[in-house]
Design goal:
- The chain has 413 residues and is of the alpha/beta class.
- It folds into two domains: 199 residues, 3-Layer(aba) Sandwich (Rossmann fold); 166 residues, Rossmann fold (3-Layer(aba) Sandwich).
- Helix content is 41%, strand content 19%.
- It has 13 helices and 15 strands.
- Strands 7-6-8-9-10-14-15 form a seven-stranded mixed beta sheet, sandwiched between helices. It has a five-stranded parallel beta sheet with strand order 2-1-3-4-5, sandwiched between helices.
- It is globular and about 65 Å long.
- About 3% of the residues have low confidence.
C-alpha cells in the first residue's frame, strides 16, 4: 500500500507539472485590426509595428498569467468600415476575444458598434476593444459602451491643449484658422473658435477657411490670404498632403506665421515638410524623442533599430501594457474581468501617471507641445526620420489638465 500510495502521489505531481507546462506554453492570442492595404496602409502598418514591439517587450518580461506569451493575429480593414466588419467576423470565427485597433475614427466606430452587438448576442463569447487610434470624442461620449477602452486622449482634449499653448504666447494677437472640410476638421474649427474666445478674447480670428479634403494642390491663394491678414499664427488640423503642401507654400513665400498642428508627427510627414517647418511648426501629442527625462529613450532606440522608422505613438504602448496588467490583475483573459480590472487603473507608461476613467473608459494622460528645430540645438538630441531636424519641448500639460467631462451613459454586464 505504501508503494502504491507513493506512486499515486508521484503521478499526481507529474500530471500537475504537465498541466503547468501546458498552461505556460499556451499563448494568449489577440487581434490587431488595422488598415494594412489601401492608401492609409502606411499608417496602419506603422501602428501594427508599434503594437508588435509593445507585445515583444511584455513577452520578454514573462508575458502574462505566469508565463503565457501574447501572440498577435492581424486583420486588414482596408481603411473601410465595411471591411472592418468582415475582419471582425474573422476575429470571432477564430474565437479571439481581445481586439487592438485602429486607423480612423470611422473604422473604430464601426468596430465598437459591431463588438457591442456581438456581445449582447453572445455573452459567453464576448470581445473587448482596446482603441488606440480612433480619436472622435463620441466614442467615449454618446457612443460609449462597456466593451470599448480608448488609450489616447480624444480630439477635443488635444485641441484644448493646442489652444492653451497658443494662448500662452503673448506675442500672438491674430490667428488664422485653416482646416479640412469634413467632420474632424469642422469640429476642430468650431472648438478652436470657442476656446480662443474664452482663453484669449484679445486674440482676433482674422481668417477662417475650410478646404476640400486632400483635393487642394495649390495653397498659394490661402498663403496670400494669411499674409494679407497679418496673422501671427495658423491653427490647423490638416494632415497628410494638405499639411505638407500648406507648409511648403508658406516656406516658399517666406511667410513668418507660426503653425499650430495636431498631426505633423505622423510617419513620413516631418520628412515631407523638411526645413519648411523649422522654427515654425508646433505640434501637440503624447510623446517625442527629446523629452528631457529620457525615460523611454531605450524603448525608442530599440524600436528604431529594429524597424528602421520612428517610434512616437505612446497610446499603443499604453494599450498593450495596461491590458497585460489587467489580465494579470484579473488572473484571467475573460473580457468582463479584464475590463473591470482596467477601470480606474492608474499607470505610468513612461511620461507620468495616467488614469483610465471608469465612467467612459477614456484614458487621461499628459500631453506635450513641441516644435521642429535643427538637430544638435539645445533640447534636440535626436532628429526625426534622419532629416537633420528634431522635436523640442515647448510645453507640457499634466494629466489633470487634459480631463474633460463626458456625457457617457454606460450599460454594464
Amino acid at each position: 500500500m505504501h508503494r502504491v500510495g507513493r506512486f499515486i502521489v508521484q503521478t499526481v505531481v507529474l500530471l500537475g507539472s504537465f498541466a503547468q507546462a501546458s498552461w505556460a506554453a499556451e499563448t494568449v492570442r489577440v487581434a490587431v485590426v488595422e488598415t494594412l492595404s489601401s492608401p492609409p496602409a502606411v499608417i496602419g502598418q506603422w501602428w501594427t509595428n508599434h503594437i508588435q514591439w509593445a507585445v515583444d517587450q511584455v513577452n520578454a518580461k514573462g508575458g502574462v498569467l505566469d508565463g503565457r506569451k501574447i501572440e498577435i493575429v492581424t486583420f486588414d480593414t482596408k481603411g473601410s468600415p465595411q471591411e472592418a466588419l468582415i475582419a471582425f467576423k474573422a476575429v470571432t470565427d477564430q474565437d479571439i476575444r481581445h481586439v487592438f485597433g485602429t486607423t480612423g475614427s470611422h473604422v473604430a466606430i464601426a468596430l465598437t458598434e459591431a463588438i457591442a452587438k456581438h456581445n449582447s448576442r453572445n455573452p459567453d463569447r464576448s470581445v473587448l476593444f482596446m482603441n488606440y487610434g480612433g480619436q472622435t470624442p463620441e466614442l467615449t461620449n454618446e457612443k460609449c459602451n462597456f466593451w470599448h477602452f480608448r488609450f489616447d486622449v480624444h480630439a477635443d482634449m488635444k485641441v484644448h491643449a493646442l489652444i492653451k499653448q497658443v494662448a500662452a504666447q503673448k506675442s500672438i494677437t491674430k490667428v488664422y484658422l485653416l482646416n479640412q472640410d469634413y467632420a474632424y476638421g469642422q469640429a476642430v474649427q468650431k472648438l478652436s473658435r470657442e476656446l480662443l474666445a474664452k482663453s484669449r478674447p484679445d486674440i482676433q480670428i482674422v481668417g477662417d477657411d475650410l478646404i476640400q479634403l486632400q483635393k487642394t494642390k495649390d495653397f498659394s491663394p490661402y498663403i496670400a490670404k494669411i499674409r494679407a491678414s497679418n496673422a501671427d499664427a495658423v491653427v490647423t488640423s490638416n494632415w497628410g498632403p494638405d499639411l505638407v503642401l500648406m507648409m511648403r507654400a508658406s516656406h516658399d513665400t517666406r511667410l513668418p506665421a507660426l503653425y499650430y498642428t495636431l498631426n505633423s508627427h505622423f510617419t513620413g510627414t516631418p520628412t515631407a515638410i523638411g526645413d519648411a517647418g523649422v522654427g515654425r511648426l508646433i505640434n501637440v501629442s503624447s510623446w517625442h524623442p527629446n523629452i528631457a527625462d529620457g525615460k523611454l529613450e531605450k524603448y525608442y532606440l530599440g524600436y528604431k533599430g529594429k524597424y528602421k522608422e520612428e517610434w512616437n505613438m505612446l497610446p499603443h504602448k499604453s494599450a498593450v501594457e495596461m491590458w497585460a496588467r489587467a489580465v494579470d490583475a484579473a488572473k484571467s483573459t475573460d473580457p468582463v474581468a479584464v475590463a473591470k480590472a482596467l477601470e480606474n487603473m492608474r499607470y505610468d507608461a513612461g511620461t507620468g501617471m495616467m488614469w483610465m476613467r471608469a465612467d467612459d473608459h477614456q484614458l487621461m494622460h499628459p500631453l506635450y507641445a513641441f516644435s521642429l528645430n535643427k538637430a544638435g540645438q539645445p533640447g534636440v538630441k535626436y532628429d526625426v526620420e534622419n532629416t537633420g531636424f528634431g522635436w523640442r519641448t515647448e510645453g507640457r500639460f499634466e494629466t489633470d489638465e487634459t480631463v474633460l467631462p463626458t456625457n457617457c451613459k454606460m450599460d454594464r454586464p
